[in-house]
Amino acid sequence: xxxxxxxxxxxxxxxxxxxxxxxxxxxxxxxxxxxxxxxxxxxxxxxxxxxxxxxxxxxxxxxxxxxxxxxxxxxxxxxxxxxxxxxxxxxxxxxxxxxxxxxxxxxxxxxxxxxxxxxxxxxxxxxxxxxxxxxxxxxxxxxxxxxxxxxxxxxxxxxxxxxxxxxxxxx
DNA sequence: TTAGTGATATCC
DNA sequence: GATATCACTAAA
Length: 171
Hints:
By secondary structure, this protein is an alpha+beta fold. Helices cover about 15% and strands about 30% of the residues.
């Protein structure tokens, strides 16, 4: 069992998103219990012109993290009650990231995943390959990966909403 | 289908 | 200071 390090995330976002599907996210809770959830779905965001990426409309304090170093966790509060978790990928200085969209089993939704592993604002800005509370593990198993269009981003227009940048592991 | 929720960005 | 927007969920 090995932890994914900076080199894993320091690559093209589509590659990272595809390979991240099927990996395990581990979370050490405050009571020292360790929760492990296999990642079932990911989505790639960002790139030069991706209108669905938060950073596409301009660099702001909130999106500053997206331009940062690969492996950094970007946590975003959506609709006032849902935490969405992303991991920054690619070169520093480019707004790229991968959204963790679902976990194995009943965790069919990005906010359910973060709720299950107790991720919130406190993790925003942490590096996932350099702390003892949360990390990603590779247990050596590999899965068939399906692709599909991203969801929930109709505002970005058909061209971007239709990109097959969603990766689903056939667990 | 619709309500609920709050941070953020963008306008005064 | 005010308002519009939003990478969602649960209940119906």
